[in-house]
Fold this sequence. Notes:
Elements: E1 3-8, H1 13-22, E2 28-31, H2 35-38, H3 41-50, E3 53-56, H4 60-69, E4 76-79, E5 91-92, H5 101-107, E6 110-112, H6 116-130, E7 141-147, H7 152-160, H8 165-168, E8 172-174, H9 184-191, E9 198-200, E10 202-204, E11 210-217, H10 227-238, E12 244-246, H11 249-253, E13 269-276, E14 281-288, H12 292-306
Parallel strand pairs: 1-2, 1-3, 3-4, 4-6, 5-6, 7-9, 7-10, 12-13
Antiparallel strand pairs: 7-11, 8-10, 11-14, 13-14
Amino acid sequence: MTARIFIDGAAGTTGLEIRQRLEGRSELSLIALSDAERKDARARKAALNAADLVILCLPDDAAREAVSLIDNPAVRVIDASSAHRVAPGWTYGFAELEPDGYGKIAAAKRVSNPGCWPTGFLALMRPLVRAGLVPADYPVSISGVSGYSGGGKAMIAEFEDRQSAAFSKTVSRVYGLSLRHKHIPEMTRHAGLSHPPVFAPGVGRFYRGMLVEVPLALWALPGTPSLGDVQAALEAAYAGRPLVKVAGRAESAALTALDAEGMAGTNAMTLHVFGNEEAGQARLVALLDNLGKGAGGAAVQNLNIMLGLPETQGL
Length: 315
């Protein structure tokens, strides 16, 4: 049976990425609206209710509105916005994060796609909290750099405007200086932390790709875990998961630098454990594509799981 899919917001950055991954798949039928129909409330509502599965690629308020327009109880939803990532009744769409993640997504009617920064952070932190290596009340921080496509149409336009300061001068910059970024509740809740992490994001003058870093003072953690303990916890969490790779200790130790564009154009993520055993310090780094495993690739993975298809189909 062919599943009918409607991407609401298919003209946006994430929507285009998802559509590219779904086009040509014989087991799926994409419901498409013309430019005029996308602005017609009746046509849009009809498409939302005619689909077997809807993927929302909209701003938060528009995503909430779209959900309110769905009155067909059979319609299932994947929301790529941040509107429902900590909302009651929604399943968090990071399949590898918890042991029962795949089953919950497969059974869900409403799935919220993770953000790109939370994907990298949670991949590193959640297994350590679950294993008891990092206490829930430990002061955690997260930093890194993302391609400017993660900032949506406005940031893309700014960085690609040849007359702008971003194009001519900026190599990278930090933002979220108020420490009130919308990703913080999502990272706190799904990592199992008691307090919000200090989130220090940065954006670089490249289109796609990102690295997310979590530094840890191992000497300050209960039990003083070693780099090997951290490595083992991550390897155990993602064993057999095709889209999340934990680099071996030798592979990571051989690196002298890490390129934020290293996973650009892919739908997977690689985790590294760097550190100084004598100093009791670690640098945990997730490398991914903010438009792949951090957005469109994750949405397609969730779609596959919800439809009972191989999770990497089309990826």
